[in-house]
Design goal:
The chain has 431 residues and is an alpha+beta fold. It folds into two domains: 110 residues, Immunoglobulin-like (Sandwich); 243 residues, Spore Coat Polysaccharide Biosynthesis Protein SpsA, Chain A (Alpha-Beta Complex), CATH 3.90.550.60. The longest helix has 22 residues.
Length: 431
């Protein structure tokens, strides 16, 4: 208990029990969280927050967002990146030591005194004059910017000049986003949910479930099922969601992922089988040590399938070209032998739940799809493939009805190509 207290400031303890709820002048109900939860639960939540928030903020923030000032090689010093303001709110522009012009806002100098030579207060063009270098820098330190155009994320450019010197620097106008934290969990059962999509293969599905329970008796399993004649599937900590018949492969993946409440989700196919080398903990260890990672793939049997995507952007008249390069890796993951960055992995991977939801699975793709998820996540998801993380593959059974859906023929392939041409604006694709 004392160890958890270290993450709470004295002010937090002091305020516990003193916060109250009530109605505002507009009649809205105000809820002060600290007054509505028990002290013991508060300690637990603060502990969870301290564990999860550091990695979340590391994932959300980048060095490109840090405030950097241009050094005054000319008489002008100004911010060259990292100046972020809230829409329609006044903010002091940092780091200037010397007229300003903007397009999406207005400029002003705070606390102007008699005798200060400032022209253009509250307008898009501001001129400051002074015969004293010290006085001029004092005025510059009080220059503010207020956007006049509302947008959740846009930017403005400030034209900054003095005598024959000119400079331009950006201002990012951005609404603050609220972090979404997941309970980091105390063991593998509270950290990971296993998800799968099934269609007509109940024998294989039951073998998969039994093998999972052999190694992970309590972990949650979520099944999305669009079989033509659904059968009942039950078990401890198991959720079975029935879909409309033959709704499709990616639609089922979306459904399964939508029900996950843990930080991580492990995707498996319904004909896999857990073996002695199936260690979910190893996946989690990698993800925890490299919080920027979104997806880590393993191997199915001896098949450690992975690939790179080579994308050449097109122009306005023609779309781009995409090429999938099998077995090509990008770079080793620092600190992990046998792990390397790639653009796509096999259908056995651990992913951060929020990252998978952010990209999603295109429900247009009903029968045959895999690369498409990684294509949609290209440039957004950081993906790695690691050796030593394996799951077994059951022996194939003869299932003529299943094969008719699994291998739909040339028409489905042509529809997919047309879909790629429109959705991803591709004029050519090579698998």
């Amino acid at each position: 208990m004392l160890k958890m207290c270290r993450w709470m400031s004295w002010k937090t303890f002091r305020d516990v029990g003193l916060r109250s709820t009530g109605n505002t002048s507009s009649g809205q109900r105000t809820f002060q969280f600290l007054a509505l939860i028990s002290f013991s639960l508060l300690l637990h939540l603060v502990w969870l927050n301290s564990k999860s928030s550091n990695s979340v903020f590391l994932r959300m923030g980048t060095k490109m967002e840090s405030l950097i000032l241009a050094q005054p090689n000319s008489p002008l010093q100004y911010p060259i990146q990292g100046f972020v303001v809230a829409p329609l709110a006044k903010s002091v522009i940092p780091g200037k030591t010397l007229s300003f012009t903007v397009k999406k806002g207005v400029l002003s100098v705070e606390d102007v005194l008699d005798g200060d030579q400032v022209e253009g207060q509250g307008k898009s063009n501001l001129t400051i004059s002074s015969s004293s270098h010290t006085h001029l820098n004092d005025l510059l330190s009080r220059v503010t910017y207020t956007s006049t155009i509302y947008h959740v994320k846009t930017k403005d450019l400030v034209n900054y000049s003095f005598e024959d010197y000119e400079a331009i620097f950006p201002i990012v106008i951005k609404r603050s986003s609220v972090p979404v934290l997941y309970d980091p969990g105390i063991d593998i059962n509270s950290q990971v949910t296993i998800t799968t999509k099934t269609f007509l293969r109940y024998d294989e599905l039951n073998i998969l479930i039994n093998s999972i329970r052999q190694f992970y008796p309590k972990i949650k399993i979520i099944i999305a099922d669009d079989s033509l004649e659904p059968q009942n599937v039950t078990g401890y900590n198991l959720e079975h969601y029935i879909m409309p018949p033959a709704q499709g492969w990616f639609a089922g993946r979306n459904l399964a992922i939508s029900q996950v409440t843990t930080k991580y989700v492990l995707w498996v196919d319904d004909d896999y089988i857990f073996i002695n080398n199936t260690r979910i903990e190893s996946f989690v260890e990698i993800m925890e040590k490299v919080p920027e990672l979104d997806v880590v793939g393993g191997a199915v049997g001896r098949n450690q399938f992975f690939f790179r995507l080579q994308y050449e952007e097109g122009d306005e008249e023609e779309g781009g070209c995409l090429r999938r390069l099998h077995g090509r890796r990008i770079q080793s993951v620092p600190g992990f032998d046998g792990c390397f960055f790639v653009d796509g992995v096999v259908n056995y991977f651990l992913a951060r739940t929020d990252a998978v939801r952010r990209v999603g699975f295109d429900p247009f793709l009903k029968r045959v799809a895999h690369t498409e998820f990684f294509l949609d996540g290209l440039g957004d998801l950081l993906i790695a493939s690691c050796k030593g993380l394996s799951v077994g593959h059951q022996k194939k059974r003869k299932q003529s009805k299943y094969r008719r859906y699994r291998f739909p023929g040339q028409k489905d392939g042509r529809n997919k190509l047309a879909h790629h041409y429109f959705k991803n604006y591709l004029k050519c694709i090579r698998y």
